[in-house]
Design goal:
The complex is a heterotrimer of chains A (224), B (219) and C (239).
Chain A lengths: L1 H20 L1 H20 L7 H21 L1 H4 L6 H8 L4 H29 L8 H26 L5 H12 L1 H15 L8 H25 L2
Chain B lengths: L1 H29 L13 H28 L2 H33 L7 H22 L6 H26 L12 H38 L2
Helix pairs in contact in B: 1-6, 2-3, 2-5, 2-6, 3-4, 3-5, 3-6, 4-5
Chain C lengths: L6 E10 L2 E11 L4 E5 L6 H8 L7 E6 L2 E2 L5 H5 L2 E4 L11 H12 L4 H11 L15 H14 L4 E5 L7 H13 L6 E5 L3 H4 L5 E6 L2 E7 L6 H9 L5
Helix pairs in contact in C: 3-4, 3-5, 4-5
The chains are: A mainly alpha (224), B mainly alpha (219), C alpha/beta (239).
Chain lengths: 224, 219, 239
Amino acid sequence: MRLLRSALIVFGKEIREEARRKESFLASFFFSFISIVLFHFSLDLTGADLSREGSGLLWLIILFAGSLFTGNSFRKEEENGTFQALLLAVSDSGAIFLGKYLANLAFMTSLGFFLLFLSGALLNMPVWNALLPLAFVFTLVNAGYSSLATMISALLSKEKGSALLYPLVLYPLLVPLFMAAAALTGTAMASGPLLGSPWLRLLVLFDILFFVACMLLFEYAAEE
Amino acid sequence: MAEKIRKCAVAATLSAALLNAAALAAVFFYAPVEASMGEAQKIFYYHVPCAIAAYGLLLLSFVMSIAFLSTGQKEYDEWAFSGVETGMVMIACVLVSGATWGRSAWGKWWVWEPRLTSFLILFMTYLSYLLIRALGTGDPRTPKISAVVSIVAFLNVPLVNRAIAWWGSAVHPARIGLEPPMKHTLLLSSFAVALMAASLLLWRVFSARKAEGTEEGNP
Amino acid sequence: MGAVPFLEVREVSRSYGRASALEKVSFFAEKGRNTLVLGPNGAGKSTLLRILALLTRPSSGIILWEGEPVCAKKRGEFRTRLGYLSHQLFLYNHLSAEENLEFFAALYDIPAREQKIVGLMEQFGLASHRSKLAGELSRGMQQRLSLARLFLSDPELLILDEPFTGLDEESSEALRSFLLSLRRFNKAVLLVTHEVREAREIADDLLILDRGRTRYFGEAPPSGKIMDLYHEKTEGSPP
C-alpha cells in the first residue's frame, strides 16, 4: 500500500507540473490536430470504409503524438537531477514507475478522446454512436502503450540523443499493439462484436505481459 | 578463456564448412525438384534453417541479457550482444532468401506474407538494439540499456507473430508435404546452418574478448 | 568510537566498462563527525559518493550500515535514510518552493508535515519566497531550498558533493556555519569539495583519494596542515 500511496503522490506531482509546463502536451495535441488536417489532404477518404481505414490512421497519429509526451516523462527529470531525488525518496522504485505510468495513461486517454472528437468532427468518422466501446478499446490500448512508453523513457533518459532514439526503440515494439488497436477500433466503429475477438485477447495479454515486465525491469532501467 | 573460445570457433567453422558442402550437395543432387515451384523451391533448404537459427540466437541473447542484469558480469553482455549481431545476419538471410523465393513464386520481390513480415518487424526491433549499441559505445550504461531492450524485444516476438498471422491471409504453405529425401536434406542443412551460425557467434565473442584483452594490456 | 562504525565501506571497487574508477576503497564514518573527501580530478570522488548514496552499484565490495550489509533488497529502504546533495539542485523548476518541499515530504511520509515545512522555510530564510516557482528563485535561494529539502527527511547520513559550487560569498558563509552546526545534530557527514579553504575547519576525518585508490584515511590534521598532507599523498596534483 505504501507503493500505491507513493505512486499517487508522484502522479499528483506530474499532473501539476505538466499543467504548468504545458510544452509536452501542447506539442502532442497540436501535432494531432495538424496531422488530422494534413491527412485530409493526403488521403481521399470519401467513399473509403472509414471504420477500417480511418482507425488505422487514427492510431498512427496517436502513436506519433503520444511519444512526444511520454518520451519526455523522464527526460525532464534530468534537468535538475530530480530523478535521483525521487529514487532517494521512495523505498521501492516501482512507485516512481507506477506514478509516471498513471500520468502517461491519463495523458494518452485525453489525447485519445481529443482525436476521436476531431476525427468525428472533421473527417466524419463514425465515432459518435460507438463512444462506449471505443473508450473500452482505447483504455486497453493505452494501458499497454503506457507501460512500454514509461519504462523506455526511463531507460533512455540519460542517453545522448534520447529524443531521437526513443521512437526508434518504442515503435517496433508497439507493432502488435498497434495492429490490435486498429482492428478493434475498426470493429467498434462498425458496431461489430468486441468480446470474443482474438484481438482483444492479444491486447489483454500484451497489457499484462508488458506491465509486469516493465515494472520488473524498471529498477534496472533506473539505477546506474 | 579467449583461447578456449578460439578453439571452439575453429572447430565450429571447419565442421560448418564440411556440413555445408554436404548440405549443398544434397540440395542440388539428392533432393528432388518440387513439382509446382521448380528449382526455386530449393531456397527453402536454407531459408527455413536460417529462420530457426535466428530465433535460437535471439533466445540466447534474451537469456544472456537476463543473466547480465541479475549478475552484472560483462561476459554475459558480450554473449548477448554477439547473439543479436549474429541473429541479425540470420534475419537478413531470411529476408533476402524469402524475397528471392517470392520473386520466383509470385513474381514480386516483396509480398506482405505473414511470416516474412514478422521477420521484417523483428529486423526493425533489433535494429534499434544495434543503434543503441552504436550510439552508446563506451558509455557504461549501454550494456544495461541494451539488455533491457533485448528482453522486451524477445518477449514481443510471439505477440508479433500472432498479430501478423491474423492480419493478413496466409500465403505461406501452412504444412508442406515433404518427401523423405526432402526431409533428410532439410535436416542436414539445418545442422549446417546451425553450425555456421554458431561459428559466427563464437568468432564474434572471441574478437570481443581479444579487443578487451589488448585494451587491458595497455591502459 | 563504538564497536561498530555507523557506516563502513569495505573494499569497494567500481569499473566503468574497462576503465576502473575505484579500487578497493575502505573507510568508515561515524555519527557526529564530518569526513572531508579530497582528491584530484578523476580520483573517483563523485563515483564513491554516488555509490554511498546507493545510486550506483559497486562492481565489488560491500557497504555496511550499523554493521548490516546493504543488500539488493534493502537498498531502497536505506536510501530513504540518507540525504544526497550534488551540484544539481534536485528541485522542480515548475513547482513553487513550498510545493517542492510538500512533494518530497509526502514521498518521505514525514509526520507533522506542515509544521516541519514552515519551520525549515524559516530556518533557511525562505519564508518570503514560499509561493515563488523554484525556477524563478536566485541561485543562492535555490541552494537554500535544496538544503531545506535535504533536511526534510532528517537523514542520518549526509552526502554532499561540491555543495559550494555556484554559491555567492554570503551563501557560502551560511553553508559553512550550517555544516559546522551539524555536529550537534549527530549526523554522519561526507563532504567532497575542491575548495579546501571552505571546508578545512569543519573536517574531523580526512579521506584522500587518487586515481581510485585510498591514499590517506584518518583523523584530519589541524586545518593549516591539510594541504601539506594532501600534496604529500597525491604527489602535488591540484585538488
